[in-house]
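Sequence in, structure out. Go.
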Amino acid sequence: MKLIGTHTSPYVRKVRIVLAEKKMEYDFVIDSPRQAGSTVPDINPLGRIPALLLDDDTPLFDSRVIVEHIDNITPNNKLLPAPNRERTEVKRWEAVADGLNDAAVSAVMEGLRPKKEQSADWIARQRDVITRTLRFMETHLGEKNFCMGTHFSLADIAVGTALGYLCLRFPDIAWQESHPNLARLYDKLMQRQSFIDTVPQA
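Output:
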């Protein structure tokens, strides 16, 4: 398998952590759709990362599709439960974490535009989404050891990668100080080798 993406994308990092937790070997091909000559649009018509090329060259894209496929084809270290209410809960955590990433990435991309073309209102709206989402995750995590209670799952991987992206791109938010439950979870996740090995570097 080949994973196409970058070191800084939180969506790519989520897939890399899942692959590490499942102990699967793969080739990591560094490519960004923002670079001239990128091959990403040839693999994913949406022009987004991550993209996963299976051994038969079938392309998969969207991190949620990719991680579910990986979990389905390997019996070890299951990260998603069987289809039931608990699975829905895991997917809800993943959706809210990915939504936080969507807002953060959108704000970053807007900030890369020429100053006179930037929309301060747009950036402010994305920051409002981040603030509300952090509050939601903090409340719903509560005192639990992991998002789903006592066991590690895809929910924790999704939340951990989103929090890691905030550490990389928005250090001014200082979410650890105002969200102690999330800070406790993040510290615990950062002891796992899969998280240590995939820390994004600007």
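Check: Residues 36 and 47 are 12 Å apart (CA to CA). Residues 85-112 form the longest helix (28 residues).
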